[in-house]
Amino acid sequence: MFYQHCVRILADVEHAEEAILTFTSELSGNLRLSAPMAFSSRYLTQILSSFALRYPSLRLDIEYDDRYVNLQDENFDAAIRIGELPDSSLVARSIAGNRHLICASPGYIATYGAPQTPEELAEHHALLYVHREPHGMWALPVGNLTESFRVRSRMRTNNGFQLLEGAKAGMGLAILPTFLAVDAIVAGELQIVLTSHEPRGGNISLVYRQSQRTSPKLEALSNFLIEQIGSPPIWEQQLTAYLETVS
C-alpha cells in the first residue's frame, strides 16, 4: 500500500510538471493506457503505433483487457472505454460514436428467418457478450423507451471476436459494434436485422482522472485518436458506402 501510494505521488508530480509545458513542446515520459481487446485488435494497435512514431520521446505502456481497470489503484494514466459509462469522478472525452447492430448470418436467416419485432427474439438463438448482457436480456429501444427482451442463449463469451465468429458461423443472432461487424457485413457473411431497434452503444471514450485534466500527453492522445478515427468514424463510412451500393 505504501509503495502504491508513493508511485501515485510521483505520477502526480510528473503530471504537474507536464502541465507547465506548452503543447508545442516535445512530449516525453511514460503513458500507461488500458484498452479493450476487440477494438484494439481491429483499429487501436495501428493508431497507437503511429502515435508512438509521432512522439518518439514518449514511452507507451499498453495493456489490453476488457475489464474496467481502476486507474488510480493500478496506476493507469487513462483507459479507452466503450459503451455507456457509469457515473464516476473520471473525466471522459468522446472519441467516436459506438453504434450497435443486431446481426445474423445468411445461413441462420435461411433456416430460422429474421425476427420482425423484438418480441420474436424469444424464438431465436442468441449469442451473448457477458460484459454487456450478463442476465440474458437485450435492452432495445421501442419508441421513446428502452425495453428488455429475453433471448435464448446459445453461447456466452467475454470475447468480441468469438461473438463475431459465432454469428458468422450461423449459431444465432448477436449484438455487435459496427467497428467489429462491418467487414463481415460488406463480405456478405452477416446481415443486419431489426434495424428499427438498434441497441444503444454509447461512445468510445478516453477516460482519465481529474488530476490529469491538463496533461499534454492525454490531450495529444485524444486529439490523435479523433484525427485518425475520423468523424463519422471510418467503419461507419465503410458501412454507409456499402449500404448505398445494395439499396
Commentary on this structure:
It is a single chain. By secondary structure, this protein is an alpha/beta fold. The protein folds into 2 domains: 2-98 and 202-233, 3-Layer(aba) Sandwich (D-Maltodextrin-Binding Protein, domain 2); 100-197, Periplasmic binding protein-like II (D-Maltodextrin-Binding Protein, domain 2, 3-Layer(aba) Sandwich), CATH 3.40.190. It contains 7 helices and 12 strands. The strands form 3 sheets. Strands 2-1-3-12-4 form a 5-stranded mixed sheet, covered by helices on one side. Helix 5 (178-186) packs parallel to helix 7. This is Transcriptional regulator, LysR family. Residues 26-228 form the LysR substrate-binding domain.
Jot down its keywords.
247 residues; alpha/beta; D-Maltodextrin-Binding Protein, domain 2; 2 domains; five-stranded mixed β-sheet; 7 helices; 12 strands; sequence-specific DNA binding; DNA-binding transcription factor activity
